[in-house]
Recover the amino acids of this structure.
DNA sequence: CGCAAAGATGCGGGGCACGCAATTTTCTCG
DNA sequence: CGAGAAAATTGCGTGCCCCGCATCTTTGCG
């Protein structure tokens, strides 16, 4: 049996997604400490004990979708034509992350304004911030490997690929934060290329 | 009464330091989940309940010294002469972090090799990684403010100071990781300037 | 010296993470 | 198809953590 196509695999994936999605939704609605693991499990139609078979903590469940998305960046980078300049490829690869996936389209948000407000509250939770940062470090490994492959550097001995990966992911985080801080004068599709362009230019002082 | 010089203040600071130090030491020795809050409190000569008056979690206690050190970077940056180029000042400011403070000199490590090994195990703990990353984000605010002051940009409206602060702190983290990953061919005093120089040059591919 | 403010402590509760063993579901192969 | 193997789900019990509240002790100040 090929991996990923059996009934088992698809059910597991579905449960995992349901748990993560339920965790996010409930947290955005009520706030993190008004959501018990019991609630999340119930919303996903599964026993409380099963929740911890999939995730080690509430925070991990909430953050898992973000981790999945960050992991795609490395894949996208590998997919870019090799003759493309590195920073062009990196910019394009990171931008793919902001195209809404099918699962978001399928689940339309009832009240976008209220949702955005809840999201901010959620992201202000220290425990979630910490876990969220950890996802970028995990994805960093993948991205560093892809950068190493593209630039002919070594993932084990060279500092370069790690530094580039860390910097790129930091730039996306900084762009996101800026986007949330200011009441969005500009969109991510504009902010992120700007950030990466600045970095590729060596972050010179403005004007 | 001036802040910070009363008996009360100094006792509080001492207790805080003792708790954090005990938490680190015990964790390096035995591993995170073989250390109970009770143990840390006992080692610091204080009741278990008091521990949580100072820190919200074990992780926070362990990480608090690192946070203190990162906070100094912004102060150091402000102390650099204003005519100094930005990236020179940033490099110097971050380097001060690696001069061992008086409390480390006073408490000599019995077995440096074993200590280093324990440190690695400790830093591999997911919960600690997460909390450690959070400290950099907290320090990032301070640093961004200092960068804004030096470059005449706005902490509220401009993206630039945040991007610079985030990138610099990420570089120090990447350098630390590289230092721990490779069995230290080079020291931090060499690695960190290299990282910042690469960034100031726009991270070009190494020929 | 005595009162007010602030910190330390003890107690108790809610909840989370996880090990273990039993049970149900899915897969594989004769 | 059907039986046994493999894997996932579940229930139960445990240890610990974090925090609120009330009380007691220490420090600060006039």
């Amino acid at each position: 049996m090929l991996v990923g196509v059996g009934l088992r695999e698809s059910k597991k994936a579905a449960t995992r997604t349901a748990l993560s999605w339920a965790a996010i939704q409930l947290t955005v609605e009520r706030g993190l400490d008004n959501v018990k693991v019991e609630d999340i499990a119930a919303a996903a139609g599964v026993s409380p004990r099963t929740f911890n078979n999939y995730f080690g903590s509430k925070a991990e469940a909430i953050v898992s979708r973000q981790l999945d998305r960050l992991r795609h960046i490395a894949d996208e980078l590998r997919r870019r034509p090799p003759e493309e300049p590195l920073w062009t490829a990196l910019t394009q690869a990171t931008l793919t992350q902001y195209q809404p996936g099918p699962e978001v389209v399928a689940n339309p948000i009832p009240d976008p304004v209220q949702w955005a407000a809840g999201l901010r509250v959620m992201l202000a939770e220290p425990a979630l911030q910490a876990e969220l940062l950890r996802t970028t470090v995990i994805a960093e490994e993948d991205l560093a490997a892809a950068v190493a492959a593209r630039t002919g550097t070594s993932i084990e001995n060279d500092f370069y690929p790690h530094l580039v990966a860390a910097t790129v992911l930091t730039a996306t985080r900084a762009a996101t934060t800026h986007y949330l801080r200011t009441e969005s004068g500009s969109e991510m599709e504009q902010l992120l290329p700007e950030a990466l362009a600045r970095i590729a230019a060596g972050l010179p002082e403005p004007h």
Q: What stands out?
A: Chain A has two domains: 1-56, 64-200.
